[in-house]
Amino acid sequence: MPVNTFGYAVYNENNEFCGCIVFGLGANNNLAKSLNCNQGEIIELVRMALNGKQESTSKALSISLRLIKKDIPLCKAIISYADESQNHKGIIYQATNWLYLGESISHSAIDPEDNKIKHTRILFSKYGTTKGLQYVQDKPKHKYIYIYSKEIKKIIEGMIKKYPKNAVIV
Q1: Distance in Å from the first CA to the final CA of the chain
Q2: Contact, 101 vs 159, CB < 8 A?
Q3: What is the spatial distance between Cα 147 and Cα 100, in angstroms, rounded to a whole number?
Q4: What distance in Å separates the CA atoms of residue 29 and residue 118, rounded to the nearest whole number?
Q5: CA atoms within 13 A of residue 52's CA, in its CB half-sphere
Q6: The dihedral sign for the CA sequence 4, 67, 29, 110
Q7: What are the residue boundaries of the structural domains of the chain, listed by start?
């Protein structure tokens, strides 16, 4: 489970629970450093778990983006990843005007105990190290950023790319 900084419950017009949107510090300890910021100024959208009963997924995300800026005023940007291995291209980020930063290389490792492929964080928690593990390259993750700060916009100016192909906003 990711480290949770803030989470929002999503309800539909009938006051029926539809899921949650969770922001946190993410798995990358250097996320903020890469943008010349301090830990906590850059956060990650770590989960959007919605059951489809909400009016609009993009509306739910847009509301959470406004709330997070209000609740964490020092937040300068939000990073999120669309996992290609889950057939995600980041259509929700495109629909809500995030900027695309390209692909991020991702890898997992084989658990020597059961020979199953697992995330390295899980194996580190289990063994206290990842040394000696056999690594497997995963499909890439698409990296998106939502910016609140002009300072961050200047930093990433040359890094912005066109949205991935084959991603269709419906």
Answers
A1: 30
A2: yes
A3: 11
A4: 20
A5: 0
A6: positive
A7: 4-105+140-159, 106-139
Cβ atoms of 119 and 46 closer than 8 Å = no
- What's the CATH architecture for 4-105+140-159? 3-Layer(aba) Sandwich (3.40)
Q: How far apart are CA 37 and CA 150, in angstroms?
A: 13
The per-residue pLDDT for range 81-101, each reduced to its tens digit, is 998 888 888 999 999 999 999
Count other Cβ atoms within 10 Å, centred on residue 130. 12
Distance between CA atoms of 109 and 26, rounded to whole angstroms?
19
Instruction: Give strand pairing partners of 142.
Output: 82, 103
Q: What is the pTM of this model?
A: 0.85
Q: How far apart are CA 50 and CA 54, in angstroms?
A: 8
Residue 26 has pLDDT above 70, yes or no: yes
- Residue 168 tokens read as 């269709």
Average pLDDT over the chain, rounded to an integer:
90
- H-type alpha helices, the chain: 57-71, 91-95, 120-127, 150-156
CA dist 79 and 156 (Å) reads: 12
The residue with tokens 């700060």 is 149
